[in-house]
Amino acid sequence: MATIAVVILNYNGQKFLQNFLPEVVAYSTPHAVVVADNASTDDSVAYLRKNFAEVRLILLQQNGGFSQGYNESLAQITADYYVLLNSDVAVTEGWLEPILAYLHAHPEVEALQPKILAYHLPTYFEYAGAGGGFLDTWGYPFCRGRIFDTIEEDLGQYNDALPVFWASGACMVIRAETYHALGGLDNDFFAHMEEIDLCWRIWRRGGKVHYLPASAVYHVGGGTLAQGSPRKTFLNFRNNLALLTKNLPASALWYRLCVRAVLDALACLRFVGKGEGRQGFAILKAYFHFYGRFWFWRKKYKRFSEENKDIPIYSRSLIWQYFAKGRKKFSDLK
Asked: What pLDDT is attached to residue 267?
């Protein structure tokens, strides 16, 4: 029987552990549940030791972010599959059974995500993952059920299992062999888009990433960095540029970076025009930080022996479709 480890990376999330861990434990039996604590300064560890003796606790010495936290933790866990699960996610009864059955039936699938719905608005998709993630031609990520800030109601329109470009780190299931063979998440991302980078490497190596709506979870979102945080904006823009630089050949990279500079400058001006100067400054800071270390990121580019030509990248501009054409839903995209 395949073994699966549900691994929650916790940082000062005692309130989320109190709210969600009991059901994670109850609904994941007989599979292992592990909490890796990322050097929390609240009472998370004491709470776990007192209330969850059956949950394995891994104590990390410093907060190295989402990437390093998972890399250090998963190096200590033996299983066939890992579930990377945010502490602010509510799972449902029997949520792991369809996942295990699907992975067993589809050995070519190396990672997947379930349907991710909003905890506080459960009939709607959740921002971080929704019905599976994609990337447009300029490198902007979006989801089935969420484009930019437009969130769709779940009416069963995305109830088909299919390949997606990326699976959300809020709830990602990945084969352990794949995770370790690819070196896991990139520590230098710290947080945000590291799962997209990992999924891109899976695709480039010849594997597949899928979305599986037969399993559903409910995500609060913003548990560590709230939406609208300048720090989150900085990480998203810097890491998005790093994502392209790490995974595109030179022939496809340079003109994309040039176009992105123009588009991101417009985003910066838009923030300033809305009176959100700190957000605009975060974009500028991201650019200075990225280009100050450009060759550091470029040296991470790795050519695989046989690059996969069937990677599901959206070949058009999401910005043009959304803002110029008014196509706000995934199903509206051409």
From this structure: 94
Instruction: Please state whether the predicted TM-score (pTM) of the whole model is above 0.85.
Output: yes
The pLDDT tens digits of the residues spanning 34-77 come to: 999 999 999 999 999 999 999 999 999 999 999 999 999 999 99
Output the average pLDDT for the chain.
95
- Distance between terminal CA atoms of the chain? 43
- Residue 64 half-sphere exposure toward CB, CA atoms < 13 A: 16
Give the ranges where the chain is alpha helix by DSSP (H).
14-28, 44-51, 65-74, 96-105, 176-181, 194-205, 230-247, 250-273, 277-292, 294-298, 318-319
Residue 212 tokens read as: 């599986």
* Residue in 94, 82, 95 with CA at minimum distance from that of residue 169: 82
Q: What is the mean pLDDT of residues 113-123?
A: 98
Pick the CATH number of 4-219 from 3.40.50.300, 3.90.550.10, 2.60.120.200, 3.40.50.2300: 3.90.550.10
Whole-angstrom distance, CA of residue 319 vs CA of residue 156: 26
DSSP symbol at 194: H
> Would you list the domain boundaries of the chain?
4-219, 230-302
